[in-house]
Design a protein that fits this description.
The chain is of the alpha/beta class. It contains ten helices and eleven strands.
């Protein structure tokens, strides 16, 4: 039985691109879906928010000259593409799913309704939340925190390309130091870029623990769900209660 009965997974869009760096790598999507499917089979209720960086990063040059609101809406649609691909891979694993979007597109997915999302989770369905919050100027990190709080997730698990929270970017600095635990306030004070400041502040104000882990390590999603050491725990200063 997983330690966390209800978990919100925030998965980096860039990781879905595999080695290509852009678009979707079908094999990588299948691998990640298989890990999430195993979490669901073991009894955990899982919500998922996917980033859109595997598409929008490749369009960044074009987006730079666009109106910010237009560019952000493009990013929201990129998350829908990723969620559809991930939904398909999960269902091929035999896992029931529901895709809910903050921007209505009824021919593609259900509109996001909080109580309906919770009911889907209670019925054992993996719920994918796409299109961010539907508002520009908010990141998918902030959307993930918002959904985690709304569905009353026990923890927000953010999967990235690195092993956790470092004192500086480990992809640029080989001497970067990994934190195993760190407080919300220290993340904000140091300006650590693992999540945007709005998302970190929301977690702090609502005491939502965040676990940052490496998506490229096989089995890490299951380890996170079962409460095994993996990555960096961001929490209130002092011992993390119940974790």
């Amino acid at each position: 039985m997983p330690r966390h009965q209800r978990i919100l997974l925030k998965l980096s869009g860039e990781v879905l691109a595999g080695g290509a760096g852009f678009g979707l790598d079908r094999a990588r999507v299948r691998e990640l879906a298989a890990e999430v499917a195993e979490v669901a089979r073991r009894g955990a209720q899982a919500g998922i928010v996917l980033g859109g960086g595997n598409f929008i990063r490749g369009l960044s040059e074009a987006a730079r000259e666009m109106d910010r609101v237009t560019a952000d809406h493009m990013g929201m649609l990129a998350t829908v593409i990723n969620a559809l691909a991930f939904q398909d891979a999960l269902e091929k694993e035999g896992v029931p799913t529901r895709l809910m979007t903050a921007i209505e597109m009824r021919q593609v997915a259900e509109p996001y309704i909080r109580r309906r999302a919770i009911r889907h989770l209670e019925k054992g369905r993996v719920v994918l939340f796409a299109a961010g919050t539907s508002n520009p100027y908010f990141s998918t990190d902030t959307a993930a925190v918002l959904r985690a709080l709304e569905i009353k997730a026990e923890i927000l698990a953010k999967g990235t390309r690195v092993d956790g929270v470092y004192d500086k970017d480990p992809l640029k600095h080989p001497d970067a130091v990994l934190f195993r635990q760190i407080s919300y306030d220290e993340v904000l004070a140091r300006g650590l870029g693992i999540m945007d400041a709005t998302a970190v502040a929301m977690c702090r104000d609502n005491r939502l623990p965040v676990l940052v882990f490496n998506l490229n390590v096989p089995g890490n999603i299951l380890r996170v769900a079962e409460g095994e050491p993996a990555g960096t725990l961001i929490h209130q200063a002092g011992p993390p209660a119940g974790l």
